[in-house]
Design brief:
Strand content: 25-35%
Number of domains: 1
Shape: elongated
CATH topology: Ubiquitin-like (UB roll)
Helix content: 10-25%
Strand order of the largest sheet: 2-1-5-3-4
CATH superfamily: Beta-grasp domain
CATH class: Alpha Beta
Distance between the termini: 75 Å
Radius of gyration: 18 Å
Number of helices: 3
Order of helices and strands: EEHHEEEH
Structural class: alpha+beta
């Protein structure tokens, strides 16, 4: 009897391009295993799963999370600027209200 399998997607967005690959993986596959099987790490050098955050459908998850059918694994880019610091800079550059 064949091992049960599930359909998942692995994606990563860059400013000028994106990576999206549909995979059929064995049930019980983790996020890390799916990313490795997808070929993302070979196609886009510089991604380090120890540094880049990952998630499923926009929610951050650890690499050892077991996938379910139709999950979309997302590998996020590092932030270019701290959102809180960027907000402070914008607020300090506005003129004071009278």
């Amino acid at each position: 009897m064949a091992e049960p399998s599930i359909e998942v997607e692995v994606c990563h967005a860059l400013p000028a391009s994106s990576f999206l690959r549909a995979l059929t993986v064995p049930a019980g596959t983790t996020i890390q295993q799916a990313v490795e099987r997808s070929g993302l790490l070979q196609d886009i050098p510089g991604i380090d799963l120890a540094i880049n955050m990952v998630g499923i459908h926009g929610k951050k998850k650890p690499l050892d999370t077991v996938l379910r059918a139709h999950d979309r694994v997302e590998v996020y880019r590092p932030l270019q600027a701290d959102p809180k610091e960027a907000r402070r800079r914008r607020a300090s550059s506005k003129p004071a209200k009278a």
